[in-house]
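agent> fetching stored inputs for the S-adenosylmethionine docking request
agent> found them:
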Amino acid sequence: MKLTDLKFLLEFIKDKKAVGAVTPSSPALAREIVSHGNLSDASVVVEYGPGTGSFTAEILSRLNDGACFLTIEQNRTLAAHLRKRFPDLLLFEDSVENVPRIIESLGHTEVDCIISGLPWASFSPELQDRLLRPTLSVLRQGGTFCTFTYVQSPLLPSGRRFRKKLRKHFSEVFTSSIVWRNLPPAFVYQCIK
Ligand SMILES: C[S@@+](CC[C@H](N)C(=O)[O-])C[C@H]1O[C@@H](n2cnc3c(N)ncnc32)[C@H](O)[C@@H]1O
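agent> prediction call returned; pasting tokens
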């Protein structure tokens, strides 16, 4: 097992609900989720819950020149890991709940794209709402919100509840095909405001 994966596993053991996965997402899932972010049209991009940076690397490779890219990670150990891996990354060690204040501190009023690594299906209904509300408030009309979920999540009440909320709050919600090369296999929701 790689040291990065071990670090991630230890953080999962400490806080299962917030970390939500035993291992970082695979490069295949990173390619899938980022490919749905419409990054070629984006000048302000936010990543939620980068963890050890699986999606971050893929986002950085596809960003427009001059785009503002910021990440929000609340886990102190994972944030420290990210700072080492990406010394130039704009990283806020904070909760996604504070995204409006964070983008305002950078002089922005809205965001074109949000790529989320948060484990929404493991959150309570209240927490899902508390994090979705600020998300919707900063995303511009027509902006893209991408998130992933594991194949089993539509079978769970919390996963079904989250999908229902996405359909309620976004004008369009697309589901990708299953990414089998991920543990567990997963798919992406691409949501357009
Ligand atoms: C399932 S892991 C995904 C990590 C990485 N994106 C990946 O796919 O490998 C979820 C990440 O979200 C972070 N997280 C959970 N709740 C958060 C919140 N409210 N604000 C910021 N980060 C959060 C966790 O600390 C963890 O790093």
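agent> quick read of the result: The CA atoms of residues 1 and 53 lie 17 Å apart.
agent> awaiting further instructions
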